[in-house]
Write a structure and sequence with these properties.
By secondary structure, this protein is of the alpha+beta class. Helices cover 40% and strands 16% of the residues.
Length: 225
């Protein structure tokens, strides 16, 4: 497992900024707040959420130095070491513009038995986030029309909402000449799709035409129909 701190500004009005922790007796306040945040966000802690709840960043840092059971995974992002971390949810939180795609999307749609070791995510063309290279993400980039085509939300295997391309878009992506997919994985995915009662061949071919993979996809499809 390989971004956004809310900065508290000084204000000369009657509004008060989150108070800093001054006494040891207030430590349970942090632990109680963390428990609520962990429960509501299903294991992921963002410093901006703590600030909204009155925990100053400096308080939180002191808590961590005293051995709080919290692990930093990215700037402003932490997880509880005592709780299971949904890697897919964590990556979606870190990279909000990312959409799970290619082999990862195949796995999420149950079109392959191959468990991904790395995670494919597609980002809009021109998107720049240096943290991507430090994560378990294999990035792809797409122009707006292709990036937005077929985006849906589903539950991850752990029950958390993530963004992924729909089945038809995923299949077309797997047959893109720009993506060097394993032929066996391609065929297995297409065979499983063709057995589904809710398959939508017209949508698949419409996507194939838009994405310019019709020529490569059609021969396999004709054999299976």
């Amino acid at each position: 497992m390989k971004d956004g701190r809310v900065k508290v500004k000084s204000d000369h009005t009657n509004k008060t900024a989150p108070k800093k922790l001054e006494h040891k007796g207030q430590e349970p306040q942090i632990e109680d707040t963390l428990s609520v945040v962990v429960r509501e966000s299903k294991g992921i802690i963002q410093t901006k959420d703590l600030t909204k709840r009155g925990i100053h960043p400096e308080q939180f840092q002191r808590y961590l130095k005293k051995g709080g059971k919290i692990e930093k995974v990215a700037h402003g992002l932490y997880v509880s070491v005592d709780d299971f971390t949904d890697e897919l949810q964590l990556l979606q939180t870190r990279f909000k513009k990312g959409i799970f795609s290619y082999e990862t999307a195949l796995y999420l749609h149950d079109l392959t038995d191959v468990t991904p070791f790395d995670y494919h995510m597609t980002f809009p063309q021109g998107y720049n986030n240096k943290n991507i290279t430090e994560s378990d993400v294999i990035p792809s980039y797409a122009v707006p029309d292709r990036y937005e085509l077929g985006v849906i939300t589903i539950d991850s295997p752990s029950g958390n909402v993530i963004r992924v391309y729909d089945v038809e878009k995923t299949l077309c992506d797997m047959f893109s000449p720009r993506h060097k997919a394993d032929k066996d994985i391609q065929l297995t995915a297409l065979k499983r799709y063709m057995k589904r009662k809710n398959k939508d061949i017209s949508k698949l071919m419409r996507y194939a035409k838009i994405l310019r993979v019709e020529k490569g996809l059609r021969p396999y499809l004709e054999v299976l129909i």
